[in-house]
Amino acid sequence: MSTTDLERDIARIASAARECARALTKTTNQARNEALRKIAARIRECAPDILAENAKDLVAAEQDGLSSAMVDRLFLDDARLGAVADAVAEIAELPDLIGRLERAETRPNGLQVARMRIPLGVILMIYESRPNVTADAAALCLKAGNAVILRGGSEAFHSNRAIGRAVAAGLEQAGLNPRSVQVVGNTERESIELLLHHDKEIDLVIPRGGEGLIRFVAQESRIPVVQHYKGVCHVYVDVKADLDMALAIAENAKVQRPGVCNACETVLVHADVAAQFVPRLCARYAECGVEIHGDERVRELGGEAIIPATEGDWSTEYLDLTVAIRVVADLAAAVAHIEQYGSDHTEAIVTADAAAAERFLNEIQSSTVVVNASTRFADGGELGLGAEVGISTTKLHAYGPMGAEGLTTTKFVVRGTGQIRT
Amino acid sequence: MSTTDLERDIARIASAARECARALTKTTNQARNEALRKIAARIRECAPDILAENAKDLVAAEQDGLSSAMVDRLFLDDARLGAVADAVAEIAELPDLIGRLERAETRPNGLQVARMRIPLGVILMIYESRPNVTADAAALCLKAGNAVILRGGSEAFHSNRAIGRAVAAGLEQAGLNPRSVQVVGNTERESIELLLHHDKEIDLVIPRGGEGLIRFVAQESRIPVVQHYKGVCHVYVDVKADLDMALAIAENAKVQRPGVCNACETVLVHADVAAQFVPRLCARYAECGVEIHGDERVRELGGEAIIPATEGDWSTEYLDLTVAIRVVADLAAAVAHIEQYGSDHTEAIVTADAAAAERFLNEIQSSTVVVNASTRFADGGELGLGAEVGISTTKLHAYGPMGAEGLTTTKFVVRGTGQIRT
User: Fold this and answer.
1) Fold held by A233-382
2) Which residue has the higher pLDDT, B209 or B84?
3) What would the pLDDT profile of B271-307 be if each residue is shown by its tens digit?
4) Closest chain B CA to residue A122
5) Cα separations (Å) of B380 from B328, B342, B397?
6) Tell me, what's the pLDDT at B1?
7) I need a surface site. Which of A74, A91, B54, B397 has the fewest CB within 10 A?
8) Distance from B108 to chain A by nearest Cα, in Å?
């Protein structure tokens, strides 16, 4: 496809999305929920087609020598596809957002002022590997009344197209424009660049993938980008911690699924419990096969096997069975460490001291702050959003796990009886 | 000042702001409100100094041949400065935002999840002429717990510096870091460019001024920008309108203060009341000295003096005693006109038909939608925000008039009893 053809193709996609977004502002929540139910049903019906297309991607992945982790993310079977359809059906049943009036008040001149929740317009998702994102993102965007452009990676090309066909069929059955959800067929990087220049048609870009992809999008985009660079999450074990609880949380946060962004990368331990806690923590991590990088005090307490931590360790997202441990003087030092090295993702404190918990909750400015629980709960589903389209570590426009509400904004609605301004 | 000195100076400002923002996250609402009261008092005490400095700007403005409207925006006297101090004192008394918990719920596993309102961090305001913005923006940013960098125009250089000194003195008296509010002394355009590259230290840019300034900032910035390009606001007179009310609203929206963004630029009239209403509307506007650009039907009904409207008229922000009038077939045509030519600022419908009002409120996606009142109410003060830092016509991160709440975000706070994820 020549550049000119590609440019024209992308321009058509962008302008169709804008048109569908306008039409969606005139649909009811009921109509969009019904479309979600039909989409879920079509995904189930189209399972043989989707799985056959998925098999093509898997063959190509093997030929290209993708890692087994990557292949696992691509892989679909009846059970996984059933879960994808279930997720879409569940989003249909979440509380409706669009048209909801918030904080109504009557002004002294009698004007009734409220905020009404409305869609953002057109969302562009740019993502890698997992074909379930195609269905999840489509469903969350539709729930929030948005049109969406889905630009997945080449490794999931056939799977994404097949899911896209099922989504389009569901939309059509429900009487909505099938182009409300568009799967971009072109998987060259150039198609991303071209999309990012359509700032008149697209309202928000959400990249999901490696740091390289996200930096590329942030740099090229003329459209606002919800960014999520990395998760350098911390567990701070306070002087008043229940140390058994601290051990269980530190283990779970690191070990239960080390390859995800809400896994813990650094454990901070209050100096006054270090002698008691650090040897137990190091032993537990050793049992779990976790490599430990520790500061001098941790090495004194934890043994010679511990690798000396370098300055770089404190800001590293290992995404693996590796952890950094540091002893800090007190809560203030823990907060200062997190301010300096953290990534605004998720931090947890373990403490039985209510005042320390409140101070940590107030002073830490990360998008999710946790008391006495694992960092692994920083997830849209776990926090009650139903599902998530991503996790923002920038404070604009959303901060933390983003569900359907993160894909909306509010307008002011004002009802008068003829008021004029004097 | 050589480029290198300027670069160093701007870098120092940005890094001091970041440091102050961190310190502000550890202050209480009471402490910041007390600082606002002290700032108001210092502005009153420093009135002789501020007015003397303002006089210098006025002399320069006259020498540079600034328009009388520009000079009027610059001009301060005891009464105007008193109003500036009052506005700061009133912001101290607005409800507190920071630390407020919203939508608390308990998850099935016992986790208590809520959103806590937090500051954005560092705000950069870039603005022209009005020195009152210096005090207003400083006060709103502090209320919301943010550090702020104020980069005003050269025409208000002395006034802004003098107000900045009063603000710094108030902060110091209240025990807060005076650099929490910094007035940039350098007024070359280059200082804007340099500031806009400090995306690590600055969280949000709010430009206020002409379209040229805003486009320049949006293009240069690596930091998210709240944009407000222009206000092409509409009044739609429905078939079921009370025509006396419609006349009063159309007059007020256009004439009461034509030079501001929430003034009406286009009146749309339902075809079935055009013969009755258009002649009265044209006569009223003629009395008020308003130049009318009308479509063919308006010229038939309103007389030969009416200038034929061109396609360009429908998207023009006149900011003057000029109005465009068009007859439309029905409400759907009015909505379609606004979608095509509007600026997402403010639109009003005049109607006695509740169903038509609801349809207009739902379908129009502008940041403020009004029923039976003047577009001139689209203003932070009038809508109950206390004061405003600007009006956003982009849906991210805020939409419509932005007060202190528009300068905040929320983080998730999670309280557990040892929960781990399985």
Assistant:
1) Aldehyde Dehydrogenase; Chain A, domain 2 (3.40.309)
2) B84
3) 999 999 999 999 999 999 999 999 999 999 998 889 9
4) B395
5) 31, 21, 16
6) 54
7) A74
8) 10
